[in-house]
Amino acid sequence: MSTSLANPGVGLAVLCTVMVVCAAVVYRVTHLGSPLVVPAAAIRGAAQLAAVSLILAAALAHLWSSILVLVVMFAAAVGTSARRAKAGRSAAWLALSLAAGVGVVLPLMLVSRVVPLEGVALVPVGGIVLGGAMTATSLAARRALDAVEQRWGEVEAGLSLGLGVRDARMEVVRSAASDALLPGLDQTRTVGLVTLPGAFVGVLLASGSAVQAGAVQILVLVGLLLAQTCAVAVTIELVAREAVHRPRLHTSRT
Q1: What is the pLDDT of residues 183-206, one digit of tens each?
Q2: Most buried residue, 93, 181, 227, 229, by most Cβ within 10 Å?
Q3: Residues 108, 222: contact at Cβ < 8 Å?
Q4: How many structural domains are present in the chain?
């Protein structure tokens, strides 16, 4: 039995076009927004995927070029987290959070030889881990900074009681930022019951083995938990120490 899915061709193009048109019609009828939003997003996504597919086809042939791809992905992830945190130039420090997450997980996977040191394995796994760390970092930074802004009175109260800046800010930062770990925890707890994640489906379609698909997925999920935990831990420390801050709130206190 063939497990090939979504082979490029006329059928795929027609199906995607029909779905885009249907979504645009729903936009129009229900006044959700401009019906051109969906076609524009679909065209942009298709163009980006086509470009990425061509680049990866060449890059995965060599280890050095695969590592270069991961470096570019890392830079893009830092930029995304920085924008979402809305912390100005100080958000560049969030690179440390992402480095902490990826820098712990990938070496463990490679040293154990569970993931071979080959581009075809390194880029997909590294990309998944990096993406998870980016999401957790973005959420943790944004919520931590929001907490400092909204609960500044509590920070000042801590300072008045003799706490240092780091400890006073940590009192409001830790609980808010820890919520960034909930999506990853929920995904791991409900895998197979509520959702079938991408790694599982991809390996299942490629190999036809549910056991192998399950093994790959649990590796990814546990790796994500570790990467996100490390990333969030570093993020809240950066916010508590004012390395990452929103300019209007930044004050030099000792």
Answers
A1: 888 888 887 766 666 666 666 666
A2: 227
A3: no
A4: 2
